[in-house]
Amino acid sequence: MASSTALVYDEEMTSYKLLWDNAECAIENPERISISYKSLQHYGLVERCLQLPVREATEEEITIIHSPEYLEVVKSTQTMDVEELRKTSEKYIAAFFHPNSYRCAKLSLGGTLQLVDAVMSGDVRNGLALIRPPGHHSQPSESNGFCVFNNVAVAAKYAKTKYNLQRILIVDWDIHHGQGIQNIFEDDPSVLYFSWHRYEHGSFWPNLRESDYDFIGKGKGTGYNINLPWNQTGMSNGDYIAAFFHVLLPLAFEFNPDLVLVSAGYDSGIGDPEGCMHATPECFSHLTHLLMHVGNGKLCVVLEGGYHLRSLAESVSMTVKTLLGDPLPRLSGEMAPCFSALESIQNTRHVHAPYWKCMLHDETRLIQEPSTKGLSTAYPSHTDASTVDEFLENHMKKILYAIPLSTTCVLSPGADTSRLPTNVQVEECTVPSEQIKGAIRVLCVGIGDLDPKLSSTNDGKTFMLIISEDKPSERVHSDYQCFLQWNENLGEGSSFFYALFRFILPLAYSYQPDLIIITVENNRSIGTKDILLLTSLLQGLSQGAVLSIVPESEPELTEALCNVLAGCHSTMDFGPYKPPTEECVHDLKDEAVSMEKEWKLLQCFGGLPYLLEESLTS
Ligand code: Q9C
Ligand code: ZN
User: Fold this and answer.
1) Structural domain contains residue 613
2) Residue 109 has pLDDT above 70, yes or no
3) Residue 570's pLDDT is what?
4) Residue 333 backbone class (left: φ over 0; alpha: ψ -120 to 50; beta: rest)
5) Boundary of a domain, candidates 279, 303, 325
6) Would you say 253 and 223 are in contact if contact means Cβ atoms under 8 Å apart?
7) Residue 499 in this model has a pLDDT that exceeds 70
8) From atom 7 of ligand 1, which residue's Cα is the shortest distance away?
9) Where residue 566 falls among pLDDT bands split at 50, 70, 90?
10) pLDDT of 407 above 70
11) Residue-range definition of the domain harbouring residue 20
């Protein structure tokens, strides 16, 4: 394996542009990809990737999805004059053609297929295609929303046939609904499509009723189309990460795809004139990192939208940096979903509960009258693009600045050091200097029977999470300790993913540790793969500063953990998975509800909107 990450880019895809005045279409310009590529060069990421050449998609490949008649229309635009181009463009919604559009659309799709081949053949683990035109709005016989051919939809069908895949997950984090992809796969249970999108109760483009949460697929595909509509602008890192933990990731693990394709639009990022959302570039590091754990790590990230050039370029760079395995910057901002996001998450979960075993015991209510209904959600006076440039300039310096640390880790007074080896060295961990000066927050995860007295500190500097077979009989209540009863019958699949995504990660992201210590006891109740998955995901926090303490009697676990900690996973296969039992779901919910006031990413169990509604109606 020459390099673990592929990058697809060709300057030729900058050779088409809008030839007449049209404010709506002007934002899809050639600089989008050329500036993003420059940013990748600036961060030294290009040479670390396997650079894959693009190729033209063949007619046979294009017609996997598209009609021969539409192909002829697109082909015919090559020789049109401006007036004819304009006329043809007007047949479609938010579309424009240039004499080079056909050539670039073939390169864009061909480049996507090159990426799929590189990942599926095992040449690389993952990769990103920096391409235009985008694809997710395009229909079998229609251009739409700047899209000519539906790159990701064709890629999914191509991969399914060529590599005989059973299940493909498409994650559409673009801020627009990929209605093209939804239409193509709405009755297909082999393709799970997830899309979040700015919706505002239908008032945002493409203004489709079927973009709402209650469109869940048709026929055999019922339950395999997941829409998470945002009814307000200004969604931030906390909203996006909550959506991943409480909606996408549990379903993705239950689905267990053979390949993950991302319709990666960065118009969901800060500063974008279309999305008007607030997610900062490192949010895409975290979304990427989480998806790297699904589908054996086979992950193809394919560009869709993204119209604020600096924001797009930084977010693309953070995505590639993460695909390469670099430590993640801390996720900034308030780690709490906003009320409107909670409502959207609850409704999407509610309508999918009958179709997914891990949601079966949810018992959440549908929110019929969301708090945002009828409200105008005007974005607080359009943030000026150059203000965002300035913000990003500063922000990137702040989040990427980290110094290497080659000393012993500091443990809190409460921790039982007798259990630690006497020469604890964490020579390779990096901790930002400001955090060294300030208080260090340590998240201790104890796996097995640990003495609850260990967690007696309540100064906020240590959080103790114990995962064991039994709960202790006597228990001191504290916001900084928690016991999770989780007992896996080793060998027949694990439901630990549910506890991880719905409880442990929301808690850990809310707490924001600087250092994570994972202690494994002899009598652990979860499996080796569970511990590896937990460790790998927790590395996304604390900038990778994770210390594991494993008993000598577990050489296999030790070796596997070393691989995970060093970022060289021989395999990303953490399955097979099984759904959690009803009892586990209820226990977890009780635990979450008791802690959600302090640790707000836990809020998505349906308690908060539920209570509010009750108080309003009584
Ligand atoms: N003010 C992609 O991001 N215009 N296409 C909507 C709403 C069309 C976006 C107008 C936006 C198309 C790939
Ligand atoms: Zn978009």
Assistant:
1) no
2) yes
3) 57
4) left
5) 325
6) no
7) yes
8) 205
9) confident
10) no
11) 5-325
> How many whole angstroms from 174 Cα to the centroid of ligand 2?
5
- For tokens 């009750």, name the residue: 614
pLDDT (tens digit per residue) in 204-213? 999 999 999 9
Mapping DSSP onto H, E and C, the string for 312-368 reads: HHHHHHHHHHHHCCCCCCCCCCCCCCCHHHHHHHHHHHHHHHHHCHHHCCCCCCCCC
Which atom of ligand 1 is nearest the CA belonging to 175? 3
Statement to judge: residues 440 and 321 lie in one domain: no
Q: Is residue 427 predicted with pLDDT exceeding 50? A: no
Indicate whether 443 belongs to any domain: yes
Looking at the structure, tell me whether residues 144 and 288 fall in a common domain.
yes
Which residue is it, tokens 């006597």? 474
The whole-angstrom distance between residue 514's C-alpha and the CA centroid of its chain comes to: 22
**Site to substitute for ligand 1 among 29, 146, 177, 211, most atoms within 8 A of C-beta:** 146
User: Ligand 1: which residues within 6 Å by Cβ?
Assistant: 24, 94, 134, 137, 145-147, 174, 176, 205, 265, 267, 274, 304-305
522 Cα to the center of ligand 2, angstroms: 50
Whether the per-residue pLDDT at 433 is higher than 60: the answer is no
Amino acid of residue 98? H
* Residues annotated as catalytic (active site), given as ranges: 137
pTM: 0.93
Spacing, Cα 137 to ligand 1 middle (Å): 9
Q: Which of 175, 205, 233 most suits a substitution to test ligand 1, by most atoms within 8 Å of the C-beta?
A: 205
For residues 316 and 414, membership in a common domain is answered with no
302 and 156 inside one domain: yes
Give the residue, by CA position, lying nearest to ligand 1 atom 5: 145
State percent of the chain over pLDDT 70: 88
Strands (E), 359-453: 403-404, 430-431, 442-447
Q: What atom of ligand 1 comes closest to residue 206's alpha carbon?
A: 6
The answer to whether the beta carbons of residues 192 and 170 sit under 8 Å apart is yes
> Any idea what the CATH number is for the domain that residue 283 is in?
3.40.800.20
Question: Is residue 321 located within the same domain as residue 413?
Answer: no
Contact in structure between 451 and 468 (CB atoms under 8 Å): no
Q: What's the CA gap between 448 and 452, in Å, rounded?
A: 11
Task: Give the pLDDT confidence of 476-485 residue by residue, as tens digits.
Answer: 778 899 999 8
Å from CA of 205 to ligand 1 middle: 7
312 and 417 both lie in a single domain: no
Is residue 596 in a domain? yes
| Domain annotation covers residue 299 | yes
Nearest to 306 by CA among 87, 437, 146: 146
For 169-181, the pLDDT digits (tens) are: 999 999 999 999 9
Q: What is the pLDDT of residue 124?
A: 97
Number of domains, the chain: 2
My answer on whether 66 and 193 are in the same domain is yes
* Residue 418 shares a structural domain with residue 320: no
pLDDT range class, residue 404, cuts 50, 70, 90 = very low
Tens of pLDDT along 212-261?
999 999 999 999 999 999 999 999 999 999 999 999 999 999 999 999 99
Of 299, 325, 351, the domain-final residue: 325
Point out the least confidently predicted range of 266-270, 277-281, 302-306, 455-459. 455-459
Best CA proximity match to 520, nearest among 492, 554, 545? 554
Which of 491, 503, 492 lies closest to 467, judged by CA? 503
